[in-house]
Specification:
This protein is mainly alpha-helical. It folds into 2 domains: 74 residues, lambda repressor-like DNA-binding domains (434 Repressor (Amino-terminal Domain), Orthogonal Bundle); 57 residues, Ribbon (Pemi-like Protein 1, Chain: D), CATH 2.10.260.10. It is built from 7 helices and 2 strands. The longest helix has 11 residues. The termini are far apart.
Length: 134
């Protein structure tokens, strides 16, 4: 229901009812009533809410929490570029990776893999206090 979606999104984005109400020009009580499925926001307010959360009105009104989570995951996935492994087994990261993920020379990266899917990924480590278990 829309009330569940509104509450989930508000909490996910760390808005209080007061802050969200102020952003869209309604009372805190209106937000509470929407989240409790006592009343529904009008179409204009749904449009404003969808813009705040960067989703479609349809996703806001009809989507499930699981669908909202998967849409958020998809927005965060990017193709950074193409690279090759050289004769020494070294991989040069595309420049775009450095800027998007804040990678600097000397940073530690963990290489992760999924044998069943044949994929690998690198994850930046903020410190060297990690343990690798097989």
């Amino acid at each position: 229901m829309i009330g569940d979606n509104l509450k989930f999104l508000r909490i996910k984005y760390k808005y209080t009812m007061e802050v969200l109400a102020e952003k869209i020009g309604v009372s805190r009580q209106s937000v509470a009533k929407w989240e409790n499925n006592e009343t529904l926001p009008d179409l204009l307010k749904c449009n404003e809410l969808a813009k705040i959360y960067d989703i479609s009105i349809d996703a806001l009104v009809n989507g499930t929490i699981e669908e909202l989570l998967s849409k958020e995951d998809e927005k965060n996935k990017v193709i950074v570029g193409l690279t090759t492994v050289d004769n020494n087994g070294c991989i040069k990261l595309p420049e775009k990776a450095f800027s998007i993920f804040g990678i600097n020379i000397g940073d530690s990266l963990i290489l992760l893999g999924d044998k069943s899917k044949g994929g690998i990924a690198m994850v930046k480590v903020d410190n060297n206090n990690w343990i690798l278990k097989e």
